[in-house]
């Protein structure tokens, strides 16, 4: 039923818990997994000396988050690829799901951390609302 699964990770504890479910599901479904992470560099520092180093550090941290999940899944015998993108998380996840023709998106959620987040919506809420496929959200 699921041939391609997009795993959106932010390297949080919730994402690590979701990885356990993802591994089991991907094995049962014999699905290919795309491990995906979007990151945003704070542009308010773009005129500060060393901004290029900051951008590179963000990229390295994002790549490490993806590489860790890819390694766990490969060790479990799952076909997996990784991808990082600079940009806002929810739109980037939705675009990646379309680009990779995902049958399912798996992601962790920490729940709303503030009243503003409850009103505006968290990343998982935005993905749930606009996803082109089913979404499995693990608390």
Report what the structure shows.
This protein is an alpha/beta fold and 139 residues long. The protein has one domain: HUPs (Rossmann fold), CATH 3.40.50.620. The chain is 48% helix and 21% strand. It is built from five helices and five strands; from the N terminus they run E-H-E-H-E-H-E-H-H-E. The chain has helices at 13-29, 51-75, 89-99, 115-120, 123-130, and strands at residues 4-8, 32-39, 80-86, 104-108, 135-138. A five-stranded parallel beta sheet has the order 3-2-1-4-5, with helices on both faces. Helix 2 (51-75) links the parallel strand 2 (32-39) and strand 3. Helix 3 runs parallel beside helix 5 (123-130). The mean pLDDT is 91.
Topology (elements, then pairings):
Layout: E1 4-8, H1 13-29, E2 32-39, H2 51-75, E3 80-86, H3 89-99, E4 104-108, H4 115-120, H5 123-130, E5 135-138
Parallel strand pairs: 1-2, 1-4, 2-3, 4-5
Helix pairs in contact: 3-5
Looking at this protein, list some descriptive labels.
139 residues, alpha/beta, Rossmann fold, 5 helices, globular
**Tally of individual helices:** 5
Structural class: alpha/beta
Q: What is the CATH homologous superfamily assignment? A: HUPs
Task: Tell me, rounded to a whole number, the average pLDDT.
Answer: 91
Order of helices and strands: EHEHEHEHHE
Task: Estimate the helix proportion, in percent.
Answer: 40-55%
Sheet of most strands = 5 strands, parallel
Gross morphology is globular
Could you give the order of strands across the largest sheet? 3-2-1-4-5
Domain tally: 1
Radius of gyration of CA atoms, rounded to a whole number:
15 Å
What name does CATH use for the topology? Rossmann fold
Main CATH class: Alpha Beta
Indicate the CATH architecture: 3-Layer(aba) Sandwich
Count of individual beta strands: 5
- Distance from first to last alpha carbon: 24 Å
Quote the beta fraction.
15-25%
């Amino acid at each position: 039923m699921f041939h391609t699964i997009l795993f959106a990770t932010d390297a949080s504890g919730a994402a690590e818990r979701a990885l356990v479910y993802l591994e089991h599901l991907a094995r049962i479904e014999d699905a290919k997994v795309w491990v995906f992470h979007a990151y945003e560099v704070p542009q308010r520092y773009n005129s500060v000396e060393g901004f290029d180093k900051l951008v590179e550090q963000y990229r390295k941290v994002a790549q490490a988050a993806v590489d860790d999940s890819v390694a766990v899944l490969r060790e479990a015998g799952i076909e997996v690829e990784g991808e990082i993108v600079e940009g806002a998380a929810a739109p980037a996840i939705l675009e990646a799901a379309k680009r990779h023709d995902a049958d399912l998106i798996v992601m962790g959620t920490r729940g709303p951390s503030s009243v503003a987040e409850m009103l505006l919506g968290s990343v998982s809420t935005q993905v749930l609302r606009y996803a082109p496929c089913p979404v499995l959200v693990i608390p």
